[in-house]
């Protein structure tokens, strides 16, 4: 979950790395550090606890210069967020420096072994053992009268590590060289004109190059001024395709918005349009998912769909269950990816797996995918990063073309995932013959209207949510209620609020209120109720009537109700004081619209409370370790 940036080239290294770290600060901001070489002073380190600006102040007071180096912004796993524990870490000689994203699970065993051989450790981190292991390999070779290259020492060291890691290593004895290795967390290599980059995520280097290698597990990259060499951990040369990233670097800037999160909320109409682009025919209602190595016959033969995801993606998955079961008439099981492989799930070749992850590198979701594959199931990945690990290992991929999402609290990635799930459900239904051509055309037409309706929802909801934030920003608790496909949206609304405002919030099925949560209701508890309706759907009308009963349960106990309702619904406005209206939509697509006011409400409450909206405490954007 940490951010890594490295550079070898002719430019001054400091601005390149600091700019890259600034773009990756969403991955970790407990501490930051940098090590550079190439100025004739060996390797110079600067580190600081806290956010990147603290490191920049340290460097301002004590400048450093060079032509190659590595930097790191940390999300703490082992050891407190102090200057001492900040990366980069040195070996005993001070001539080898390492940055690391991940967890070394056997570090205590290695640390004890190295300490017995005379190595002195100065931090609480697991990363420090990597630097000492590399030092030990180089020393052993020297004691035998041999010369060992840095990459060979790194290969020998990483083979002794248990756990997940992406590392960058430099040495004072081999200037203008960076060795990078991956086993779990992501690592990308940027290819420039006489300059080369390593980073833990695309935005860190996208402003310099769009041509990237995505390293796979077991890959190593050796970067020098003359180019990049890729090998495996045994030293065998390997080939990886160069991926050209189409994101505009400006997409990763705030674009005049106060926060990335607000910008990304307002980018949702474009994200949904781009996710559907080229995949639907309005004339025929057909859905085209071209990046599939799963045949129509296999889709027809599927007896079950297993979906695994984490956090916001799990909420999308749960909504997707309603879409798939309603349209394709195949049972769906949704798991938290972090729990999936630990329950020995029942999977067979007749079941299909679906993995949902914004980054495509979420450790738990990758582990769930591998569990599915090991038991004979083919898998489909829904992710936002072309070439990500989960897509490379899947039998089919639906990319959500949301563009880079910088805010830690996911917004546009979530609605793009809902869109991708709807496309998947429609494709499955069409292949299995569970929807008619007329139904397909109607549903696809409804989907095509969503970006415009979303723009309308954003226009009307923003100021209303800002006004509600003034009333409820001091609340200690919130309750979010929904029924059917709207229940996972209630969960998502609660998650957004707790993530960025630090208010305790709970999502609950509205029908379960009588079984406990009614005890919480009093005049201090705001309840957000999802009460949209699809006038063409009988089940939706029934759910709506039951939801009105839930609202009356809350108001009878003096609770404060904020309802999300469908435009034109005057009935609900007569029951409560606060209604946030969204445009009318078919039941299966209404979650895309109704989550918008929940995102904006969380955002404005967090802003009023003075919280760091883009970088909430204790959280990182991409969870690449278990």
TrEMBL record:
Q: Where is the SIS domain?
A: 295-434, 468-616
**Where does this protein reside within or beyond the cell?**
Cytoplasm
- Cellular component, GO annotation: cytosol
Tell me which residues make up the Glutamine amidotransferase type-2 domain.
2-226
InterPro entries for this protein: GATase_2_dom, GFAT, GFAT_N, GlmS/AgaS_SIS, GlmS/FrlB_SIS, Ntn_hydrolases_N, SIS_dom, SIS_dom_sf
Active-site residues are: 2, 621
Q: Which Gene3D superfamilies match?
A: Glucose-6-phosphate isomerase like protein, domain 1, Glutamine Phosphoribosylpyrophosphate, subunit 1, domain 1
The main place the protein resides is cytoplasm
Query: What's in the keyword line of the UniProt record?
Result: Aminotransferase, Cytoplasm, Glutamine amidotransferase, Repeat, Transferase
Q: What is its EC number?
A: 2.6.1.16
List, in alphabetical order, the Gene Ontology terms for molecular function in this entry. Answer: carbohydrate derivative binding; glutamine-fructose-6-phosphate transaminase (isomerizing) activity
Subunit details for this protein? Homodimer.
Q: What does this protein do?
A: Catalyzes the first step in hexosamine metabolism, converting fructose-6P into glucosamine-6P using glutamine as a nitrogen source.
What this protein is called in its record is Glutamine--fructose-6-phosphate aminotransferase [isomerizing]
């Amino acid at each position: 979950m940490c951010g890594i940036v490295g550079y070898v080239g002719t430019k001054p290294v400091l601005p390149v790395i600091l700019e890259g770290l600034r773009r990756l600060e969403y991955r970790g901001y407990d501490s930051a550090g940098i090590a550079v070489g190439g100025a004739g002073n060996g390797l110079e380190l600067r580190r600081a606890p806290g956010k990147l600006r603290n490191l920049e102040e340290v460097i301002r007071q004590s400048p450093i210069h060079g032509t190659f180096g590595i930097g790191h912004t940390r999300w703490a796993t082992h050891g407190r967020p102090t200057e001492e524990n900040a990366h980069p870490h040195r070996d005993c000689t001070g001539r080898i420096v390492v940055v690391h994203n991940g967890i070394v699970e056997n570090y205590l065993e290695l640390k004890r072994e190295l300490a017995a051989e005379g190595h002195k450790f100065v931090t609480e981190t697991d990363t420090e053992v990597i630097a000492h292991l590399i030092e030990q390999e180089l020393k052993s070779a020297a004691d035998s009268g041999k010369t060992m290259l840095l990459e060979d020492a790194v290969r020998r060291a990483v083979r002794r590590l248990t756990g997940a890691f992406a590392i960058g290593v430099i040495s004072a004895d081999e200037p203008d060289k960076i060795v990078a290795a991956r086993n779990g967390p992501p690592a990308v290599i940027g290819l420039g004109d006489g300059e080369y980059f390593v980073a833990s995520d695309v935005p860190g280097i996208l402003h310099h190059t769009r041509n990237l290698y995505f390293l796979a597990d077991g890959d190593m990259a050796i970067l020098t001024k003359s180019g990049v060499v890729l090998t495996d951990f045994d030293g065998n040369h390997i080939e990886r395709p160069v991926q050209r990233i189409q994101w505009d670097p400006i997409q990763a800037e705030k674009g005049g918005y106060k926060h990335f999160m607000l910008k990304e909320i307002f980018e949702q109409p474009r994200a949904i349009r781009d996710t559907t682009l080229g995949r639907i025919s309005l004339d025929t209602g057909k859905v085209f998912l071209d990046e599939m190595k799963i045949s129509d016959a296999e889709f027809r033969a599927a007896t079950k769909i297993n979906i695994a995801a984490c956090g916001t993606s799990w909420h999308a998955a749960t909504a997707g269950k309603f879409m798939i079961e309603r349209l394709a008439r195949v049972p769906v099981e949704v798991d938290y990816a972090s729990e999936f492989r630990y329950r020995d799930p029942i999977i067979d070749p007749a079941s299909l797996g679906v993995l949902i992850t914004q980054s495509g590198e979420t450790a738990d979701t990758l582990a769930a995918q591998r569990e599915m594959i090991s038991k004979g199931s083919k898998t489909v990945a829904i992710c936002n990063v072309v070439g990500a690990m989960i897509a490379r290992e899947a039998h089919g991929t639906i990319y959500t073309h949301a563009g880079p999402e910088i805010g830690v609290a996911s917004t546009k990635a979530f609605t793009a995932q809902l869109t991708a799930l709807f496309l998947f459900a429609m494709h499955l239904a069409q292949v299995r013959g569970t929807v008619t051509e007329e139904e397909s055309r109607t549903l696809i037409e409804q989907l095509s209207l969503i970006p415009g309706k979303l723009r309308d929802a954003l226009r009307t909801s923003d100021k209303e949510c800002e006004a509600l934030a003034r009333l409820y920003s001091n609340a200690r608790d919130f309750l979010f209620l929904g029924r059917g496909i709207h229940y996972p949206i209630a969960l998502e609304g609660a998650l957004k609020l707790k993530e960025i405002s630090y208010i305790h919030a709970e999502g609950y099925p509205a029908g379960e209120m009588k079984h406990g949560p009614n005890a919480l209701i009093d005049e201090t508890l705001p309840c957000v109720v999802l009460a949209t309706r699809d006038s063409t759907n009988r089940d939706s009308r029934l759910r709506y009537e039951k939801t009105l009963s839930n609202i009356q349960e809350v108001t009878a106990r003096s609770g404060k109700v904020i309802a999300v309702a469908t435009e034109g619904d005057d009935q609900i406005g007569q029951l409560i004081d606060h209604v946030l209206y969204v445009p009318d939509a078919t039941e299966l697509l209404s979650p895309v619209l109704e989550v918008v006011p929940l995102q904006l409400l969380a955002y404005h409450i967090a802003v009023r409370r003075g919280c760091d909206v883009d970088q909430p405490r204790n959280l990182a954007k991409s969870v690449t370790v278990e």
